[in-house]
Amino acid sequence: MRMKKIAALTLSLVMCMSVVGCGTKKEESSEESAAPVSTIQAGSDNENQQNDYRGGVMRTLTLKNMILDVMDGMKQNNGVVRSENPNSYWTTDGYQDFVSTLLDNSIIEDTQWFNEEETDWDTILSQYRSQTGKFSDGENLTCTITRNEKDDYSISGVAGTWENITSGYYDYRMLYDCDKDWCKAYQETDVNSSYTVMPEITTQMFEYARINNDTFAIQTSRERLLVVLNPADSDTLISGRTIKEFYYSKLTQDGQRTTFTPYEELEEKDSRGEIIVENEAKNKEFQQWGVLNENGDIATMYGVNDSMFLGAVNNMNYDWVFEDKDLQQGIVYKDGILIVTTYNKLSTDYERFEYSLVGSDDALIPQLESIVQLKELVGEQEIKTKKAEEKQTEDSSETETGEDAQPADTTETEATDSEG
Q1: What dihedral angle (degrees, nearest 10) is formed by the CA atoms of 185, 190, 191, 193?
Q2: Among the listed ranges 232-241, 293-302, 368-377, which one has the minimum average pLDDT value?
């Protein structure tokens, strides 16, 4: 396994953070035009100190930038290799590169303006009204935006469909817990159904939680992230702190996650052999949808039923990050050692990249490697119903007990480059 020692980059950000204390009136706006109000300006240091939804989003983006800076620093040797070998750097010893699109869920950007401490409600509405996009035509809102109460907002009637199986409109809900510094935003829509009573399905999600002064957890529809900062005084700005360790996972684009429970098809005939029309129709609908189960869960992404707030947030660890095995990417970093496991969409196999800073403890490497087990990852799994999965398990069992059964090859190979 190739390891390259590289020097650390000194990196700085211009964001800061601390949290202040907690505090109803329902306010609503829809298509009606209103007098212009000055819009919110992004990038203020104070935004990272706000004890409101926008503050939580800004803290999320600060942590994201810190992680990207760490990874860019770990990969800096690639720039040296490319400058010295511009025509053959792919085959040059020492070149290791991978792609990581961290926290790229659009709901974070779309909902970032909701706040209690920076502006009044009219300013927030003006911000949305002035931006041409899914919520506005550039002058008037094309949906209804509501402040339900402090730290609780909703957007309804946003035009759009998902996988051609939904009603044509999305609803959003944004929540903040000012006592704990927790954020949650999710986008839901109704499924077009003739025979099945279905809950709304979650088509986008974002969650952020402060676990303690040093530890933060973040989840989106396809990602999970746990960040641990080096200890510091409680009033130290995040931008002035350093990352001790982080753990990140991202689901494959279209594969069935291993934590998903597929729809269990109903019996279509009764004890007399008569067709049960309702069951047959319901099974046909789920077969047509493909990616849903009866609880409204989606096979390829996390939803509200997977919310980290439904469990013990204070007990979050890297086991939660890597719980699902249908991963596009799994990244582990601790004390100057970075280990990246990526699913190569061209070879349909997993590749591993390893980097370490000068002075890091190589004795940590085996421990960090073991956190993401290559032999447990499943690649981009085909989406199946419960019955199909059971049949495949039976067939596999029969094959493995046959005379020609051979042990699976679990040899791990090291990669030199990836399209992941």
Answers
A1: 160
A2: 232-241
Asked whether residue 82 is assigned to any structural domain, the reply reads yes
Q: What is the DSSP letter of 295?
A: T
Neighbours of 408 (CB within 10 A): 8
Cβ contacts of 223 within 8 Å, gap of 6 or more? 102, 103, 105, 248, 249, 250, 251
Tell me how many degrees the CA angle 295-298-304 measures, rounded to the nearest 5.
Answer: 65
Instruction: Give Cα separations from 265 to 108, 125, 268, 289, 405 (angstroms).
Output: 36, 46, 9, 13, 31
Q: Give the C-alpha separation, 282 to 299, whole Å.
A: 18
CB-neighbour burial class of residue 319 (10 A; exposed 0-12, middle 13-18, buried 19+)? exposed
345 in a structural domain:
yes
Taking a C-beta distance cutoff of 8 angstroms, is the pair 175, 147 a contact? no
Query: What's the CA gap between 178 and 52, in Å, rounded?
Result: 6
Global pTM value: 0.82
Size of the chain in residues:
420
Give the number of C-alpha atoms closer than 13 A to the C-alpha of residue 4, restricted to the C-beta side.
Answer: 19
As given in the structure block, the two tokens for residue 196 are 């099945």
Range of the domain at 286: 5-400
Q: What tokens does 204 get?
A: 């986008």
Distance between CA 224 and CA 380 in Å, rounded?
18
Alpha carbon 186 to chain centroid, angstroms: 12
Q: How far apart are CA 157 and CA 160, in angstroms?
A: 9
368-to-336, 337, 360, 372 alpha-carbon distances in Å = 12, 8, 13, 8
Tokens (6 digits) for 162: 């998902």
pLDDT tens per residue across span 97-146? 778 889 988 999 999 999 999 999 999 999 999 999 999 999 999 999 99
Chain centroid to CA 212: how far? 21
Gap between the Cα atoms of 342 and 330, Å rounded:
7
Residue 97 lies in a domain: yes
| Residue 280 host element (H or E) | helix 277-289
Q: How many independent structural domains does the chain possess?
A: 1
Q: Are strands 152-159 and 144-149 parallel, antiparallel or unpaired?
A: antiparallel
Phi-psi region of 103 (alpha: psi -120 to 50; beta: other; left: phi over 0): left
The Cα–Cα gap between 88 and 255 comes to 34
Domain assignment present for residue 98? The answer is: yes
